[in-house]
């Protein structure tokens, strides 16, 4: 897997209309790919031998490889560049990967990097005709805010799965710090062996909640992923009862990401 830094040059400020066309092609490819998985690939995979767990793992690996192909397609066609630091620390049993959410395709990168990962995804994607097939086959977890969601996520971690979660619940508003909901911390306290933060930066901002896909920046977008040091969630268990411990962990994570993102901003030339 090619994780090499993709340099940003003055040429990235050119070819605006080419990048617009390539962005349109990327979204078309993503939609058609989702339908192809639902109608062709997954029905064929379901014919292969194995129990429910084997079918689920096969589906997750398939989605991961398709997502990474999509990332590489966007990079090759000039839509974006990227660099990833510390990817080798991702994908351990019982690991909860927690990340900020500045752009629509953050989850595509992370699932592409961790082939067998489970993921908490927003509920609306389960009714989208392009995404509902892959989501059901992979048995990802719907972020419906229920106790059942918390139980499923914690149980997945206890069973040795890697879980990806975006505790903001939605994309970060440009120019504002991330605001974490306590659900992510509650899941970590209940089931995670280790908690690993991933700090994501997008420059210039693109594909935020308020931006349609065709409103592309004047220069090529650069995605930066930096895997931080592991955090032991049980270190917060001494803070008191479970709700209080979850609140302390959530506050720690909130300030951690604000600090790390601020340091990244200062180090950007």
From TrEMBL:
The keyword S-adenosyl-L-methionine does not apply. Residues 95-203 form the Phospholipid/glycerol acyltransferase domain. It comes from the Bacteria. Pathway: Lipid metabolism. InterPro entries: Plipid/glycerol_acylTrfase. GO terms for biological process: phosphatidic acid biosynthetic process. The keyword Cell membrane does not apply. Pfam families: Acyltransferase. The chain crosses the membrane at residues 20-45. GO terms for molecular function: 1-acylglycerol-3-phosphate O-acyltransferase activity. Keywords: Acyltransferase, Membrane, Transferase, Transmembrane, Transmembrane helix. This is 1-acyl-sn-glycerol-3-phosphate acyltransferase. It comes from Pseudomonas arsenicoxydans. The lineage of its organism: Bacteria, Pseudomonadati, Pseudomonadota, Gammaproteobacteria, Pseudomonadales.
């Amino acid at each position: 897997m090619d994780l090499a830094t993709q340099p940003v040059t003055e040429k990235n400020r050119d070819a605006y209309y080419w990048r617009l066309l390539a962005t349109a092609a990327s979204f078309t490819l993503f939609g058609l790919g989702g339908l192809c998985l639902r109608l062709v690939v997954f029905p064929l995979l379901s014919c292969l031998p194995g129990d429910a767990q084997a079918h689920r793992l096969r589906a997750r690996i398939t989605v991961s490889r398709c997502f990474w192909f999509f990332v590489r397609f966007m990079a090759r066609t000039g839509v974006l560049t990227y660099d990833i630091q510390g990817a080798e620390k991702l994908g351990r049993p019982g690991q909860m990967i927690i990340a900020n959410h500045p752009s629509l395709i953050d989850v595509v990168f992370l699932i592409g990097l961790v082939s067998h990962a489970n993921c908490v995804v927003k509920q609306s994607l389960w009714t989208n005709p392009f995404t509902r097939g892959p989501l059901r086959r992979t048995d990802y977890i719907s972020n419906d805010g229920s106790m059942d969601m918390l139980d499923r996520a914690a149980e997945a971690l206890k069973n040795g799965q890697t879980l990806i979660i975006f505790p903001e619940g939605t994309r970060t508003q440009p120019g504002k710090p991330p605001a974490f909901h306590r659900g992510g911390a509650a899941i970590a306290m209940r089931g995670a062996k280790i908690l690993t933060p991933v700090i994501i930066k997008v420059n210039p901002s693109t594909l935020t909640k308020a931006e349609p896909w065709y409103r592309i920046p004047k220069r090529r977008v650069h995605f930066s992923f930096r895997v931080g040091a592991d955090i032991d969630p049980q270190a917060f268990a001494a803070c008191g009862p479970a709700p209080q411990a979850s609140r302390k962990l959530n506050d720690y994570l909130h300030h951690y990401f604000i600090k790390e993102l601020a340091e990244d901003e200062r180090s950007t030339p």
